[in-house]
């Protein structure tokens, strides 16, 4: 199984990184996607992925919460690094915490969507309280986009269907699926075919039940896989096989 979204370059892992990676391998995790969030993380993500070659895969981009007044200069400095990664990310819109840089976020996201088209690199998209705005930007490039992931999907059936109109995109499903009050175990099997889902942890955040409240780590993606198998009424082997194939299709990672 593959953890498509894990901030393994974070401070939270600096003391026991080898042990975290060993536990991931032990749990059956065969690859980990590591997204950047800003210019500094171009270095930290690349260094991390060079330490675990053919296991950790870099994605580079400017996270919406990191978009400030200087976004144009930052993007100009990130762009030369893009082809070192397997995707552009994480990018998107986040109006949950703040709308201070709303216009800048919209412009920075659209610029990175254009890069995705230009370089034919998939997108790792973060979207919070901004689906309408995100969809209207993506629609402008719909036919030319190579694909990507709507990371940390937690929406309802209508929102899922709206995202699935983007053919080559999949939904990233993580720990929220396992939370007691989550509606995802009903929503997903009703409207999302298994071949449109990839697994993720978003570690160190969003630890799944029964690890909720702890630091999340890539090995815990196994709990997400198990809950997904229950929700779809299929074996864990089937979920693993299909979601691995989805990752290979979207990212070219096996
Ligand atoms: Zn993330």
Give a brief rundown of this model:
This protein has helices at residues 17-27, 39-51, 71-78, 102-119, 131-139, 157-164, 184-191, 221-232, 236-251, and strands at residues 2-3, 31-35, 56-60, 87-94, 123-128, 148-150, 169-173, 197-199.
What does the model show?
The chain is of the alpha/beta class. It has helices at about 15-25, 40-50, 70-80, 100-120, 130-140, 155-165, 185-190, 220-230, 235-250, and strands at about 1-5, 30-35, 55-60, 85-95, 125-130, 150, 170-175, 195-200. Strands 1-2-3-4-5-6-7-8 form an eight-stranded parallel sheet. Strand 5, helix 5 (about 130-140) and strand 6 form a beta-alpha-beta unit. The protein is globular and about 45 Å long. The termini are close together. Zinc ion binds near residues 35 and 202. Zinc ion (ZN) binds near residues 5, 35 and 90.
Q: Please state how the strands of the largest beta sheet are arranged side by side.
A: 1-2-3-4-5-6-7-8
Give the structural class.
Answer: alpha/beta
Shape: globular
Number of strands: 8
The helix content, as a percent range, equals: 40-55%
- Quickly count the helices: 9
- CA-to-CA gap between the ends? 10 Å
Q: Give unreliable regions as ranges.
A: none
Order of helices and strands: EHEHEHEHEHEHEHEHH
Let me know the average pLDDT. 97
Bound small molecules, by name, code or SMILES, are: zinc ion
In terms of DSSP E residues, the strand content is: 5-15%
Largest sheet: 8 strands, parallel
Task: Write down the Rg.
Answer: 17 Å
């Amino acid at each position: 199984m593959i953890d498509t979204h894990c901030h393994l370059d974070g401070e939270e892992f600096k003391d026991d990184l080898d042990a975290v990676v060993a536990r991931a391998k032990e749990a059956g995790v065969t690859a980990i996607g590591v997204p950047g969030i800003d210019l500094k993380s171009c270095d930290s993500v690349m260094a991390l992925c060079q330490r675990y070659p053919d296991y950790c895969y870099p994605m580079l981009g400017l996270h919406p919460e990191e978009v400030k007044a200087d976004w144009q200069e930052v993007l100009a400095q990130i762009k030369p690094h893009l082809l070192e990664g397997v995707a552009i990310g994480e990018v998107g819109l986040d109006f949950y915490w703040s709308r201070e840089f709303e216009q800048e976020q919209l412009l920075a996201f659209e610029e990175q969507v254009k890069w995705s088209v230009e370089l034919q690199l998939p997108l790792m998209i973060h979207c919070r309280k901004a689906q309408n705005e995100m969809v209207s930007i993506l629609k402008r490039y719909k036919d030319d986009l190579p694909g990507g992931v709507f990371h940390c999907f937690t929406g309802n059936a209508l929102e899922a269907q709206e995202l699935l109109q983007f053919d080559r995109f999949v939904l990233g499903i993580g720990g929220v699926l396992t939370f007691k009050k989550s509606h995802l175990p009903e929503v997903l099997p009703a409207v999302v075919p298994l071949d449109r889902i990839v697994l993720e942890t978003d570690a160190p955040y969003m630890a799944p039940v029964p690890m909720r409240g702890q630091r999340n780590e890539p090995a815990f993606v196994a709990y997400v896989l198990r809950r997904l198998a229950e929700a779809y009424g299929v074996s864990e082997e089937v979920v693993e096989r299909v979601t691995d194939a989805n990752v290979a299709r979207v990212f070219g990672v096996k």
